[in-house]
Amino acid sequence: MISQTLKKTGLMAVLASALFGSPTAFSQQELMVDMSKTIAPIQPTMYGIFFEDINFAADGGLYAELIKNRSFEFTIPMMGWSQPNSDRHSYNNESGFAMPVKYFEGQGNLNFIRVQVKNAGGYELHNEGFRGMGIKEGNTYRFTFDAKQMEGAISAVNAFLLDEEGNTIAEVSVPVSGSEWKNYTVEIVPNKTVMKGSLKLTFDGTGELGLDMVSLFPTDTWNGRENGLRKDLVQLLNDLDPGFLRFPGGCIVEGRTLARRYQWKKTVGPVEERPSLVNRWNTEFDHRLTPDYYQSFGLGFFEYFQLSEDMGAEPLPILSCGIACQFNTGELVPIDELEPYVQDALDLIEFANGSTDTPWGKVRADMGHPEPFNMKYIGVGNEQWGPEYIERYKVFNQAISEKYPDIIIVSGSGPFPDGDYFEYGMKELKEIGAEIIDEHYYRSPEWFKENATRYDSYDRNGPKIFAGEYAAQSVAIASPDNKNNWDTALAEAAFMTGLERNAEVVQLTSYAPLMAHAEGWQWTPDMIWFNNLESYGTPNYYVQKLYSTNKGTDLISVTQDGKNLVGQDELYASATLDSKAGEVIVKVVNTSSDAQEVSLNFKGKKLKGKGKVLVLKEENLSQENSFESQKEISPVTEEIKVKDTTAMYEASPYSLNVIRIPIK
Ligand code: AHR
User: What number is the average pLDDT over the span 336-350?
Assistant: First the structure.
């Protein structure tokens, strides 16, 4: 502390101290912010989000459906459903029994159930939801189902919402008739809020009823859409003002096997025709088995594009390149059989951007969006490595650039930020002339701090970089004990000064993974945590938010003794101009346990006398946010005064400080 103080006492410090009467107990750091010339534009895509259906992020999370396995398509068709008064090994004369039936010529929706009711007073069919159903008192829920009478005279379906103790908190009776499939819709308003509710169905009359697509949605979804998204979760995403949305993964794109890869064409069109698929994270980790994790694709590619549009984010879809996840089977599609995969990419561009008289443009229009989505980027492969990837990438590259020369193709450098796979991938992709390369790093907080200089030496004329997946791991990659604590968030904040300082090269960045259900997760850490009723941003979320909502428009330099601030005295900094707001923005990250006096000296433009500082700070590096204390670590706003060309600021121990000062 004393040595730091001595080291940094220069003329400016003495002057500033005289002017502002600042304490001398802290070290003083003199930074020069040069507003006289801009280095590079900050791309609107600089800070974005990466969504993958991991940790129940889609079904059970963002996708607001409350019924698990609504159309009986899981491998075990009755998973999620129970019949408490029935016994598989009995005729159930006092109740009844439901059995799955397979359509012979089904395309997507292959199963329904035949509910046989022998005693209407005895038979019950329950759905457990996704670790229960979050139900809110006074809110309206839309209950829908398809039914047909098959035998006898079942005349009504009665739906009950239950609380944790099995008490009814809402009920409705829906008359049914006719031997043809019909869709029934009613609204229902519960009289109690419950975290782990469930659905109970009973039936009037006896006989057999076909039942399918049993669905329960809040009507209060994001933008009030049917088949919509959970409002609180989209709000958290929207608040980030993301520059892009990368979707739908991640390893989920690749599949553990090729057969189980993500196929976008199966996720568009009427929801009831979208075939379900086992989620690849279902049995990935022995320590977090989630055998009931499937993808209904109710949140499919159309919805991802729509969400991007809602948030003003560039859509960035990632497609399989013909290699199953190399951490799993690594199955390869032979090069001469790659055509359908490549066609999927070309058709996706048509789906997103094509006119309504093209086949895929028409599908988009029929789904209610005749205007193009104006997609600019497409990703080929996720975390592939080796010659197998490069060979396949070349085929995609040629086909896409020939037909759609304006589309920017995002390639990948594999799962690691260094080592053989990385070196090889980068070298080959540079030779091909790749436009944007996606890098991933899940490393320790120390690595993040040490790598604030990572991009300083990247070729300014080479491919642009997409830091597509990164997060500091408090324990180790894929450890269930990783925490979203302040230590990890602060290290990311320090690292991000390096991303920003290299905005000439780094043009897209996103934290990963995005979301996790408090009970349904497989992977930690995650930026947003939610349960069936609530959600909160982690400290890592607030770091992302501070960068994203204060990115500015143009990079400028901030230096100390002519050098970038990349960890000297545990300080990191980056700076931008915001030409729209007419402000200069300086980000200072103090990773030291000491407060540090920062003297900001501005050159090139005149400043107004007062600005503000958005501060994230916490002295306990293990501190986390939680459902009980959701904003324990969240930004507070302070004032900063400017005298002529100098502003003094005390950066608290362990703090991220976003300083915004209006320009005259
Ligand atoms: O973010 C979780 C996983 O980490 C992603 O699916 C994958 O791309 C990476 O290995």
Answer: 98
CA distance readout (Å), 530 to 44, 220, 537: 28, 18, 9
Q: Please pick, among 383, 428, 469, 597, the residue that the annotation labels catalytic.
A: 383
| CA-proximal residue: ligand 1, atom 6 (nearest) | 250
R_g of the chain, CA atoms, integer Å: 28
Q: How confident is the model at residue 22 (pLDDT cuts 50, 70, 90)?
A: very low
Given a contact cutoff of 8 angstroms between Cβ atoms, the answer to whether 414 and 443 are in contact is no
Closest residue CA from atom 9 of ligand 1: 250
Helix (H) or strand (E) holding 380: strand 377-380
Q: Using an 8 Å Cβ cutoff, are 493 and 482 in contact?
A: no
Residue 432 burial (10 A CB sphere; 0-12, 13-18, 19+) = middle
Q: What is the C-alpha separation between 222 and 233, in angstroms, rounded?
A: 9
The pTM (predicted TM-score) of the whole model is 0.95
Known catalytic residue: 128?
A: no
Q: Whose CA is nearest to atom 3 of ligand 1?
A: 250
| Closest-lying ligand 1 atom to the alpha carbon of residue 50 | 1
Ligand 1 contacts (CB < 6 A) are: 52, 54, 249-251, 382-383, 415, 469, 512-513, 523
How far apart, in whole angstroms, are the C-alpha atoms of residue 209 and residue 199? 18
Ligand 1 atom at minimum distance from 512 CA = 1
Q: What is the DSSP string of 549-576?
A: TT--SEEEEEEETTEE-BSGGGEEEEEE
| Nearest atom within ligand 1 for CA of residue 250 | 6
For 104-113, 145-154, 224-233, 437-446, which range has the lowest pLDDT when averaged over its residues? 104-113
- Angstrom distance (rounded) from CA 323 to CA 334: 9
Residue 226: pLDDT over 70: yes
> 568-591 in b/e burial notation, b at 16+ Cβ within 10 A?
ebbbbbbbbbbeeeebbbbbbbbb
